[in-house]
Structures are given as C-alpha cells and as structure tokens.
Design goal:
single chain, alpha+beta, Alpha-Beta Plaits, globular
C-alpha cells in the first residue's frame, strides 16, 4: 500500500531497529518453538479434510485467505460478528481495549476519491515478527502456517503487539467468564485470530469465511496455498493479488484482490 493511501487501523510503518532490539531480548530466553496442541485436520483441495487425532500439522500445507475487496461491502460486518460469536469475545464498551480478532478497515485514496473496506486480522506470516520477539515461545507458528499464542506461556509482556505491523493482537484486561472450550482465553495474556483451528482441524471453514459466504458478499476464500489444485492457489496464480505491507518481507498468508495501491 502506497504512502498516499490514508488508512485506519493498519500500521503504516514498521521499525526494523525496534524489531532487532526486541529480537535480541527474546534471544536471551529463547526456547524451541513447537505446538503443544493436538492437531486434527488438513486440506489438499481448499476444503478442510479431517485426519486422525494426534497427527501433526503438515509443512506441506500453507493455510491462507484470499479476500476480494470488490466484494466486501463497507456496511457489512458479518465476518466480525461471526468471529465474536464463535470465539466468545465479550466486549466491555471500551473499543480501544476490547478484544478484536478481526476488524473492518476503511482506506481512502485522496487523489482518486476511491474508498474501500476490507477485513484485517492476523496475517499469519511465514516470517512472523511476533514469534521473533516473544521471550517465552508463547507466540509460535504451526507447521501449516497458522500463527498462535500459547496462553500458558504468555507472560503479557506485549512485545508481540508492538512488533506486529498489522495491529492484529489484543490484550485481555478483564477476567473472562463463559469461555468456549475450544478457544481458551485468559486475563493478562495476548490473543489474536487463530483461523478457527478448531474448525479447520475438524473439517470446517473458519467462522468469518463461512459467514461471508452465507450472509455476506462472498468476499473470502480459504484454502491451501501450497496445493496447486486448490481453488485459492488457482486464483492466486490466475489473478493479481497482494499482501498488505508486502515490502516488509513477512510473507503473509492473507492476500487481497482488487486492493487499490
């Protein structure tokens, strides 16, 4: 996205010096990053396909999203509502600190007058800066590209929040009641979009994608970017798309079509 674009909610800059500094701190207490969860599902065609419990996530898969901005209505927030409902994200009337795993962002080109609306969440980077700076290994990336937070290891330092150029992580300030068993959360920890791994690993689409297809504009496509036969891989190969702040070299797993630059 060029410098002339005015955008709300996406970090316009990322300071390499800060990342290097925080990375040095993280290196002092570095640990081996390995998912401590049981993983269940995998896809080779763009739709999830369940596998036996205990099977590890495969590096042959790269989960991703393709979002067509032309099909994203500025007045639609079905993806946001679905995420809130699915993951039990209670609000407290404080927009600045309430958890927000996915949000709608508006961008405006002052030269052409073009305005666009798009959903922004954790971009599930191949080179995630949140993982680089985490001093405890709480932030980690699964073998299939999904970036997660282990709440048991998170100490609430919020280095990952500072490192993320997409402002995609939230900090839990209050005690949480009536949690979803598949989406554990905890006061004093950081959290972000998980691509609904409990759904993906049991043969279902992420809640935001399902809601967009069912009741929204059908703007979101989920699948395996590494599988040339998957619908998402075919579209990425056929049509021009881009990553937000692709210049940072983080290789996000979320790509956008028809995003004005």
């Amino acid at each position: 996205m060029s410098g002339k674009m005015k955008h709300t909610g996406i970090a316009a800059e990322f300071n390499p010096a800060r990342r290097k500094f925080l990375g040095a701190i993280a290196g002092v207490a570095s640990v081996t990053l390995a998912p401590g969860v049981i993983l269940y599902g995998i896809t080779r065609s763009g739709d999830a396909r369940a596998r036996k419990p205990g099977t590890a996530a495969s590096p042959d898969v790269r989960w991703g999203l393709l979002i067509d901005v032309n099909h994203c209505d500025s007045g639609c927030d079905k993806c946001v509502s679905a995420c809130v409902e699915e993951n039990g994200l209670q609000g407290h009337g404080r927009p600045a600190t309430d958890p927000q795993w996915i949000r709608k962002v508006k961008i405006h080109d002052p030269d052409t007058g073009l305005s666009q609306s798009l959903p922004v969440m954790c971009q599930h980077c191949a080179e995630p800066p949140c993982v680089d700076v985490c001093p405890t290994g709480a932030s980690f990336k699964r073998a299939d590209g999904i970036v997660l937070v282990d709440r048991h290891r998170c100490i609430g330092c919020r280095y990952c929040m500072m490192a993320c150029p997409y402002k995609a992580r939230s900090f839990v300030h209050e005690e949480i009641e009536d949690q979803k068993t598949y989406a554990p959360r905890g006061k004093g920890t950081v959290e972000a979009c998980t691509l609904c791994i409990h759904r993906v690993d049991s043969d279902r689409l992420p809640a935001c994608v399902e809601a967009c297809n069912d009741a929204g504009g059908g703007a979101m496509l989920f699948g395996d970017l590494k599988d040339p036969n998957s619908e998402i891989a075919r579209r990425v190969a056929r049509y021009a798309s881009q990553q937000i702040r692709g210049d940072l070299g983080l290789d996000p797993g979320v790509r956008y079509r028809n995003l004005s630059t």
